[in-house]
């Protein structure tokens, strides 16, 4: 097997895992081999941590400025999965045999976490949009202007997100990995990516608490390995 960077890192990780063996001779030999490989290829703990970090994109419904509630949703999910977040303005993606220009939220974190974050973003966004539509269909007659209706819909979404956040504990990310994630974010920000907020509209308490009530029934059903944060949302 060629000594590609990925193969070298794989060998080092295997040796480090064996260094925790209860057999002291095996453990010592594995640790020496790991140290030898790290010295030979210029690998340190920061390099190992950085190799665990990746990104995944969650498509937004907006091109350059995400809705305030979706911005809130993305930040909630990022905090739960120990990720950093940036927004990348629109690019062309295929939808129903046509091209549409939409932006995306970029989750930056451990490779095992970012895919779960994108999954959670997609599922919860659909649930929120469906709930908002049902709420406005039932209570939209209360609002006389388009602005009031938009504000009520936004408040509903924010209440839903707050309710979901109260159900789940954040995953713990080790300091070395946190540093690697921050470093990756700084690298990506060189591409002029950023998070943008929609203008804040008037607050509607009734819609907000309707959202809170709906958020208590939020669910994410998917077979997972290590997705404890998602499992909590299923309860």
Structure described in brief:
The chain has 235 residues and is α+β, with helices and mostly antiparallel strands. It has 9 helices and 3 strands, in the order H-H-H-E-H-E-E-H-H-H-H-H. Helix content is 57%, strand content 14%.
Key phrases:
three-stranded antiparallel β-sheet, alpha+beta, elongated, 9 helices, 235 residues, 14% strand
Percent of residues in β-strands: 5-15%
Q: Radius of gyration in whole Å, from Cα?
A: 22 Å
Distance between the termini: 45 Å
What would you call the structural class? Answer: alpha+beta
| Major sheet size, sense and barrel closure | 3 strands, antiparallel
Total count of helical runs of at least 4 residues: 9
Helix content: 55-70%
Shape: elongated
Strand order of the largest sheet: 1-3-2
- Which series of helices and strands comes N to C? HHHEHEEHHHHH
Q: What is the number of strand segments?
A: 3
Write structural notes for this entry:
Strand 2 (84-95) and strand 3 (98-110) form a beta hairpin. The chain is an alpha+beta fold. The chain is elongated and about 75 Å long. A 3-stranded antiparallel beta sheet has the order 1-3-2. Helices cover 57% and strands 14% of the residues. It has helices at 5-18, 24-41, 45-51, 68-80, 111-139, 146-165, 175-189, 205-215, 228-234; strands at residues 53-59, 84-95, 98-110. The longest helix has 29 residues, at 111-139. It has 9 helices and 3 strands.
Reconstruct the topology from this structure.
Blueprint: H1 5-18, H2 24-41, H3 45-51, E1 53-59, H4 68-80, E2 84-95, E3 98-110, H5 111-139, H6 146-165, H7 175-189, H8 205-215, H9 228-234
Antiparallel strand pairs: 1-3, 2-3
């Amino acid at each position: 097997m060629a000594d590609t960077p990925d193969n070298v890192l794989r060998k080092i990780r295997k040796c480090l895992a064996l260094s925790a063996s209860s057999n002291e001779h095996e453990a010592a030999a594995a640790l020496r081999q790991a140290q030898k490989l790290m010295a030979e290829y210029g690998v340190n703990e920061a390099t190992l941590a950085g190799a665990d970090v990746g990104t995944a994109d969650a498509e937004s419904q907006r091109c350059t400025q995400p809705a305030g509630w979706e911005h809130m949703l993305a930040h909630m999910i990022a905090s739960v999965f120990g990720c950093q977040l940036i927004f990348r303005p629109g690019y062309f993606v295929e939808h129903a045999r046509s091209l549409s220009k939409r932006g995306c939220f970029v989750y930056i974190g451990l490779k095992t976490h970012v895919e779960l974050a994108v999954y959670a973003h997609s599922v919860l966004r659909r649930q929120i949009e469906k709930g908002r539509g049902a709420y406005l269909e039932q209570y939209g007659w209360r609002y006389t202007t388009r602005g009031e209706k938009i504000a009520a819909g936004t408040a509903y979404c924010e209440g839903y997100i707050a309710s979901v956040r109260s159900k789940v504990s954040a995953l713990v990310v080790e300091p070395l990995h946190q540093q690697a994630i921050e470093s990756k974010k700084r690298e990506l920000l060189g591409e002029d990516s950023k998070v943008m907020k929609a203008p804040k509209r008037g607050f509607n308490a009734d819609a907000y608490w309707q959202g809170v009530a709906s958020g208590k029934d939020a669910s994410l059903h998917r077979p997972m390995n290590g997705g404890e944060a998602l499992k909590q949302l299923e309860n």
